[in-house]
Structures are given as C-alpha cells and as structure tokens.
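step: validate -> pass
step: tokenize input -> pass
step: predict -> running
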Amino acid sequence: PRRRTGKSYCEGRARGAVERAIWATMTNRVEATSEETNLLIRLARQRFVLKSEGASPQEKDRAKKAMLDTTFAEGLSGHYSAVCGELGWPVDEAKLGEMKAATAKELGSLEEKITDAVENLGDTEVREALAAKAEFICKVGAPKEERLLAFKIADEKTVAIGHKLDMVFSQLVMSIFDEDFQLMRDLIEKCKLLLEKGGDWERKNKLKVYEAIYLMATRGFTEAGELFLSSVATFTTTELFPYTMLILYTIITSIISLDRVSLKKKVVDAPEILTVIGEMPALEQLLNSLYECKYGDFFKALPEVADLIKNDMFLAPHHRYFLREIRTVVYSQFLESYKSVSLDGMAKTFGLTPDFLVTELARFIVSGAINCKIDKVAGIVETIQPDSKNTLYQSTIKKGDHLLNKVQKLGRVIDME
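step: predict -> pass
step: emit ->
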C-alpha cells in the first residue's frame, strides 16, 4: 500500500503524539542530581529513585550502588538498617556489625569530649561538643526520638541566635529526609521566631528556600513561587539542590500561579533565570511559548517538562496536579481573547484533535476551572465572562454569615459563664 504523506497526515500524527503524551505516563527519565552537598539529601534522592516506578532497572542499580557505597563508607548503620527494611534488601550482618561498632566508638569519644568540656572547659566548648554529638546521631540514622533529644539538649546550652538557627537547619534537613512535613512546619516557625530576635541575611534567605520547599511539597505553589522568586538573586542553599534546580522550581511554581504580565516581568525577562534556563531546553520552550501564545509549541514541550516534574523528589507527588493546572492556565489564556471560537480552529492552534479538545474542556468546565461552554452542534466554544461584582458580593455575604455565627456562639458562652 502507498505510504500516506503530506501536511494533513503529519499534523495528524503530531496531534496523536501530543495527546498520547498527556494521557500516558511518561517514561523518559532525568537522573537525580548529585550536586547537593548534604549527605542526607543525596541519600533521599537515591531512595526516591529506588522507590520510583518510572525508574529503569539500570537507574535503580546505579542508585543502589551509590547509596550502599556511601552508607558503608560513612558508617551509616541506622540508615542502612532502615533502607534494607523499607526496600526489602538482605542485610549484610558483618558490615552492619562493623558500622555499629564504629558508631559506638565514635559516640564514646563524643561523650568523653562532652564530659571534658563540662569539667574543664567553658560553655562554648560544651555547646560545640553537644552539637557535634547531635549532628553525628543525625548523620548515622539514630531513631528519630534520639535525634530530637540530642538537638534539644544542645539547644538548651546554646545562647547565640546564629548557632541556634544552624541547629534548626540541620533538623530541617533531617525532616526532609524523613518526609516529616509536620515537623518541618514546626521548625520553620521556630526559625522565624529566632530570626525576629536576630540573625544575618544569609540565614534569612536560607529559610526562604526551606519554607518554599515545604510549601511546594504541601501544594502551596503560589506562596512557594513568591519565596523562590525572592531567592533567585541570593541563593546559597546548595546543601539541598544546585542553582539549576532552583530555577526549575521557580518556573514551575510561577507558571501556574502568576498572571501573564507578572510572569513576563518576574520570570521570562529575569536575568538570573535567562542565564540558566538554556540548560533546560524543554522548560525554556514551555515558558516562552506560553507567554508568546505559541500553543502548539507549548504542547510539544509539555511532555518533557512533565518528566522533569515526575522525576523530582519534591515535585513527583504533584505530577498530575501540575499537568491539570498548567493546561487550565493555557486554555484560559487562549479563551480570554475571544467571545467565541470554533472548535476546529482552537484544536488546530493547540495541535490537538477536536474530539480530544472537547473531552479536555468538558472536564475543566465541570470542575469550574474554565469559564466557557461548548456548543457541539455549532462547533464552537463560547467564553463566559465571570461576574466579578456578584462573586465579591456572594463572598462578602458568606463571610458575614460566618462572622455572625461566631459572634452568636461567643455570646452564648459568655451568658453561660
């Protein structure tokens, strides 16, 4: 049979590829960066690869080798036992025994230093010895309660705000490794209270990145985006990730939270971002095509950017959420320019088939994410302009009712007393 060629056939194949990319789980994988300077963060990223369903056997083998090499070289007995239990690996009892013996010896040495500092030296030396013990216990993977207790004891002997903040940052790294976001939130609040009493700009800027990571992990993308943007020019938190990853997080959170004018001013034209974004061509294409309204190019870049998200330790849980939100942004941006538009014309602009576009828009219309309606008979999409005044009125009435209910409850409590 004759092979089909020509513009219409090529466009059809391109549309099919884009649609399959949106529906299917992407398989291309970006290797986890090894540029973090903190040991626990590197281990956390390796553990993420090992637990990821999208990682290939070769990638998992490399991650396993790197993790075991680090664990044995650093004597991380607690982490070794935990990972073997979590991933179902057989435990090398001989090496585990050696690591436990080395850990016990080092702890004995640290205890001697603490005793010597208490008996013969000053408060500074006592604090340093206690902090060293807490850091070591955290490093080797002692039980969570022991780690928190060690840092609490060291904190009680610490006076300087800077030293207190450094210990809180160490605990924040520990909470990231443990994926304990409740503890992370508490530690961030503690950091803020300490910074109100004092603290240099470097630590204040570092806290912004830690808080942004917490917000991003808990799906507070708008607030996280603001913090990442304010950290672009002052980033020093390389223990968590390199600068390239900061730019990735900044763009991802900004795209789904900023309006088009703000995106242009704060992200598209930002000199710090422009110097780095070239290292991530798909992300650069996605960002620029969104601003320049080149929607076909946008959907071509989307699968690769989705891979970046899916294969990142902090963003992976929000992979589907991001795909949904970014498509909401791009469809809404297109429809804002029209009162009505033909389905065929819109589908051609986005490089999609009309049937697929109808399915997409219907889902977003039902959820209230997009203000439009589809006239399938006429083959058009009609934009519905939201009534902002009526929305504000309804919101005010609702808040007023809520406030009156609270006042009434308070009044009943006072009457009872």
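step: describe -> The first helix runs from residue 7 to 23.
step: cleanup -> pass
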